[in-house]
Structures
1.
Amino acid sequence: MTELHDRYQALIQQIRRYDHEYYVLNESAIPDVEYDRLMEELKRIESEHPQWVTPQSPTQRVAGAPQAGFETVEHRMPMLSLDNAFNHDDLGAFVKRLKDRLNDPSPIEFACEPKLDGIAVSLLYEQGHLVRGATRGDGTTGEDITANVRTIRSIPLSLQGDGWPEVLEVRGEIYMPKAGFERMNDEARERGDKVFVNPRNAASGSLRQLDSRLTATRPLEMCCYSVGVFEGGTLPDTQYQLMQKFSEWGLKINPEMALVTDVQGLLDYYDQLEQKRNGLPYEIDGIVYKVNSFGLQRRLGFVSRAPRWAIARKFPAQEEVTT
Ligand SMILES: NC(=O)n1nc(-c2ccco2)nc1N
């Protein structure tokens, strides 16, 4: 029996590693037929030994039946909205305001991230296991979409590596890549079904399904970009270091992230990303600039619902191409 149980645990680790390589690192793992064979062997062992199955097993990503509705979730820490900068002068004014408030003229380091155009989501991990997924909602109250979040392969059911806090709330954006959006709409047209106007609406509609078996068929991904609640552990001192930790723990982060210094750095990054924008495999509607140091972020605090230490800079709206 222990030999079979050892095989069972090895299978879970192997499939978890392939999921991470394929869905988080976007590296081609093994041929589908080989992956499917491993999953079939895992399901067969679980059917013979149902008492071994835990919610963290790769076979447990899709619930068997629809839920009646969505429970509400009260966010222990509000999910922030971002102040906006509409032009380069606004960015200069933003940096000046920070230096005045810090009463320190020395250069400030910023973490720069593409502003993904999806749905902001909170993932709660306890003892390293995913226990809840929730939408941002109005920032204070969101909807419990755990069953749907569990179907997204780029979201690990258990954190990898070590050193993560006992309670860790990871925040990020769930989005639908452009190629998946086009493919899904082509299939919908062939079936005579409703098509979605844009990837953001498609992601939102997919997350609001009461039947997670439908959500599981949708090409959704998640990039993680900030932390909410954390207990029973420590986190790095900067946004950039936190993202490296997230990646070590098996969470997907955005590869376009960069560290820059002062206003010129913000402007250069804007120009670089504006050039890249149309070639990216997902839609972005701007950039999020964050003061990199968490110590400085704490000193700067928030104004009402938005942090003083971050600002969004939007690109000009793109002409809707009517197909
Ligand atoms: N939407 C998006 O891509 N965001 N949103 C934040 C954010 C919002 C509040 C704190 O951080 N960061 C990124 N990359």
Note: The chain has a mean pLDDT of 95.
2.
Amino acid sequence: MTVRIAVTGATGRMGREVVAAVGDHEDAEVAFAVNRDPDGERVEGVPLEPAAEFDSLLATHEPDAVVDFTGPDSALEYARACVEADATVAFVTGTTGFSDEAFTELEEAGESIPLLHAPNFARGVQALVNVVGQAVRNLPGYDVELVETHHNGKRDAPSGTANRLLEEIEDNGEFAGRNHGREGEEPREEGEIGVHALRAGNITGEHEVVLAGNDEEVRLTHRAEDRGVFAAGAVDAAVWIAGQKAGRYEFSDVIDE
Ligand SMILES: NC(=O)C1=CN([C@@H]2O[C@H](COP(=O)(O)OP(=O)(O)OC[C@H]3O[C@@H](n4cnc5c(N)ncnc54)[C@H](OP(=O)(O)O)[C@@H]3O)[C@@H](O)[C@H]2O)C=CC1
Ligand SMILES: O=C(O)C1=N[C@H](C(=O)O)C[C@H](O)C1
């Protein structure tokens, strides 16, 4: 079965990669692609439709899934439209930077439609999350610091992936809280987790967790070298989720199957 995918934010850094990744996937095709100004930039291989007509495009094209990499407000609007659509359409989003309130509303969409949110669609990051949890369990009392580095156009900090890694660190050890961008005269507080967000040039995305103590250090690093890796993971997720029943799914559900 060919899974028909609608792409939002199609002229964005990720939207363009998603259009290309759908084209490369043997079981997927673009149902339609939207951006807010379809008269502006072009995307090779697909006509662009106006984002303002997203609801009616869902009705006329009946895609199996939407793949969304936009911004938190837009992602929520697109998810609401999928919930309201007559035919079932799954919503796969990699958008990050949601407020707690917005994220709760996004997750509620999973009561009506198949929903999958992942802050990082690189398979290596899923492995990193697992390994970080194990390292924290194995090294109680070690100082933990997290450094994430991205291009200078990224809006949210810390990154969605950093937040996911922080949850994994905190779930697997005893910590005193997070210290974002340390400064001042005080030494490191025992048990704090240092969090550092670098923004520079066109770096695709790096995450490093440092664990240090006992005259030794462990550094666990993931480096994405091309955005295509995120897009391929998101399209794999869309192909997997099409036809699933309503519910909230994780990228690990796709990888582990
Ligand atoms: N989960 C993952 O693996 C990854 C997640 N991301 C996340 O994806 C999101 C998009 O990243 P990226 O493609 O680099 O961003 P870009 O700014 O390059 O693209 C975002 C696109 O979203 C659309 N958009 C809709 N509403 C808004 C809004 N209110 N503000 C800005 N843009 C809006 C715009 O397209 P238009 O005007 O055409 O509608 C824009 O082109 C971010 O949240 C990022 O963190 C990024 C990489 C990987
Ligand atoms: O904005 C980006 O570029 C990226 N965002 C995601 C995040 O916030 O974790 C994933 C990836 O690191 C690239």
Note: The longest strand covers residues 205-213.
